[in-house]
Amino acid sequence: MPELPEVETVRKGLNQLTLNQEITGGDVLLNRTIAYPFSVGEFVDGISKNAYPGGVGAAIATWHRRGKYLLAELSSPSSTSWLGVHLRMTGQLLWLHRDEPLHKHTRVRLFFGNQQELRFVDQRTFGKIWWVPPGIPVESIITGLAKLAADPFSPEFTVEYLASKLKNRRRPIKTALLDQSVVAGLGNIYADEALFKSGILPETLCIDLQLKQIERLRTAIIQVLETSIQAGGTTFSNFLSVQGVNGNYGGVAWVYNRAGEPCRVCGMPIQRIRLAGRSSHFCSECQTLRGLENGERRD
To answer: Which of 123, 154, 120 is nearest to 43 (CA)?
Structure first.
């Protein structure tokens, strides 16, 4: 599933390519991709110029990211509405010329000028798109937004904040980090990476973490996310940028997807276990109490 760095990579690409461009129409090829409104016809009318007096349509003012959600602010002469997208497991947003052959997993097409279009391609069909009409709070339609914790890049994401989220929780730290009400945008890849850099074993219970460990964890979360964004995210299967480019973080990952390979720090084989149904990768040598001081020195 695309995580924060992949979604941020898509957001940056969309802001480079689609700003101030009017949506002239759309085509929904899989109805269940549209989470709101429930009428596909209302969705297409809402995002296109057909819904606005005088035929002047909504243009994309900017794209935002909240956790793993993408939110496009659509501005028209008289109102503002919102387009929301969640890529889920295999969703892709691709900026293409309209003459490009349709991929068999294309679910939604948004049409722009100069024969350009934004295509939502989704093999597993779990991805969702919302149109939020003017005057309606976004969180009342895209209800998952209201449950999100602070973004790792926000001022609210302090050591004290993270400590309060983990306090008295009797579950493994790896499982807690996947909870979007604890940290917004973090997923399996970067939880593994952050735990390695902070020297914490994935099975460590939240309640057993010391404040110094939480300080290291907060720093590590931000560092691995920044590094991955600079690399254009991670592509292990489906992820592509808006321009169809793979992410490159996988080639420098510390532990994720490297089971059996030597640790880049100590040379011990990377281990893989299952926690709450998810794979966890770690180095038993570096991610122990003995490895914490080394963790402070990793860059």
So the answer is: 120
